[in-house]
């Protein structure tokens, strides 16, 4: 038991307690959490900072506005409905089209107007929000994923999660939807997380349900060796997220739209740690390296160069 714990520490594996006590809580002022916990505020911040986000079609804040949603989306064939303060992909509905007066959802089912209104009222009540507080609902553009992921994603939209520490991109992965995750890019719901080499932007091995896998369980295609498009742009966006929010330790989720390129989907002040399994590498040594060199990493270009110099993927043995 003690031998295992020692090896984990030597490999730099970061646990939740250390993440919170050493890196997150001392460097992330609580007053800044609402900037990332509320997707509407995050979207506004990104737009003002010149970073692309999925276009907002409308916001529903009160039950009296629910019935008007059908008119709000009448001009859009497809769209996404999501809670402003939701987490883990819960409560999100992806509409792909119409079947008469019903909405055709990403999982192939149909939802009529009455069921849509019922769901919207649930969102407003806070059933999917952090802390169960009353929430807002966002209606926004449905991202059309880059074809590079077509053979390793099931129905939904893959996203790229990058852990950033004091503006330095320290670790990255792409989250790939599966049948089990019902097309959502959330690991705890059954999506795959494939590590990404910080230097090249190419995918590494992957984690699925805490096990290392080489292929997508639904498509059977390899998940490693895929070149993520616009990689330098993604690193630039992630390196600027520190100035965007003031949070030193955060996760940034970016989607690659087929037509519009990289967009910020959301930011997270409490990103999970399964990214270490996907990369077969611990976070702790990388974070400590940033701490030791932080004084010299004042510019975005310096922070990206530091990440590429120090955080290249190592060859795997066995």
Low-pLDDT residue spans: 1-5
Shape: globular
Pattern of helices and strands = HHHHEHEEEEHEEEEEEHHEEHHH
| CATH fold name of the largest domain | D-amino Acid Aminotransferase, Chain A, domain 1
Second CATH tier, the architecture of the largest domain: 2-Layer Sandwich
**CATH superfamily descriptor of the largest domain:** ATP-grasp fold, B domain
What is the mean pLDDT? 91
How would you portray this structure in words?
With 318 residues, the chain is α+β, with helices and mostly antiparallel strands. It has two domains: 2-52 and 145-310, D-amino Acid Aminotransferase, Chain A, domain 1 (2-Layer Sandwich); 56-140, Dna Ligase, domain 1. Helices cover 28% and strands 23% of the residues. It contains eleven helices and 13 strands. It has helices spanning 2-10, 16-24, 34-37, 39-48, 69-72, 113-125, 231-239, 241-245, 275-279, 284-293, 300-310; strands at 56-60, 79-83, 93-99, 102-105, 110-111, 137-140, 159-165, 168-176, 192-196, 203-208, 211-213, 249-257, 261-268. It has a seven-stranded antiparallel sheet with strand order 11-10-9-8-7-12-13. A six-stranded antiparallel sheet has the order 1-6-2-3-4-5. The protein is globular, with a radius of gyration of 20 Å. The two termini are 23 Å apart. Mean pLDDT is 91; it is low at 1-5.
């Amino acid at each position: 038991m003690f031998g295992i714990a020692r090896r984990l520490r030597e490999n730099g594996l970061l646990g939740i307690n250390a993440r919170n006590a050493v890196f997150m809580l001392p460097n992330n002022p609580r007053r800044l959490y609402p900037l990332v916990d509320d997707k509407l505020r995050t979207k506004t911040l990104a737009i003002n900072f010149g970073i692309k986000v999925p276009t907002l079609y409308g916001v529903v804040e009160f039950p009296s506005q629910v019935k008007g949603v059908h008119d709000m989306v009448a001009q859009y064939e497809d769209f996404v409905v999501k809670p402003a303060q939701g987490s883990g992909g819960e409560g999100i509905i992806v509409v792909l089209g119409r079947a008469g007066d019903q909405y055709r959802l990403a999982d192939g089912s149909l939802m009529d107007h009455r069921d849509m209104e019922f769901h919207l009222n649930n969102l407003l009540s806070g059933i999917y929000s952090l802390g169960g507080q009353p929430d807002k609902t966002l209606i926004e553009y449905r991202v059309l994923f880059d074809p590079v992921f077509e053979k390793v994603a099931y129905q939904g939209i893959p996203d790229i999660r990058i852990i950033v520490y004091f503006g330095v991109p320290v670790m990255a992965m792409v989250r790939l939807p599966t049948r089990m995750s019902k097309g959502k890019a959330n690991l705890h719901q059954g999506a795959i997380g494939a590590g990404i080499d910080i230097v090249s932007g190419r995918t590494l091995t992957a984690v699925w349900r805490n096990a290392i896998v080489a292929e997508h369980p639904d498509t059977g295609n390899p998940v490693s060796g895929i070149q993520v498009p616009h990689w330098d742009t993604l690193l630039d966006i992630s390196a600027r997220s520190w100035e965007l929010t003031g949070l030193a330790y955060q996760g940034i989720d970016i989607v690659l739209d087929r037509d519009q390129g990289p967009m910020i989907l959301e930011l997270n002040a409490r990103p999970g740690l399964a990214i270490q399994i996907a990369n077969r590498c611990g976070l702790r040594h990388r974070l400590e390296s940033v701490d030791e060199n932080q004084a010299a990493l004042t510019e975005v270009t310096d922070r990206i160069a530091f990440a590429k110099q120090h955080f290249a993927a190592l060859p795997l043995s066995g």
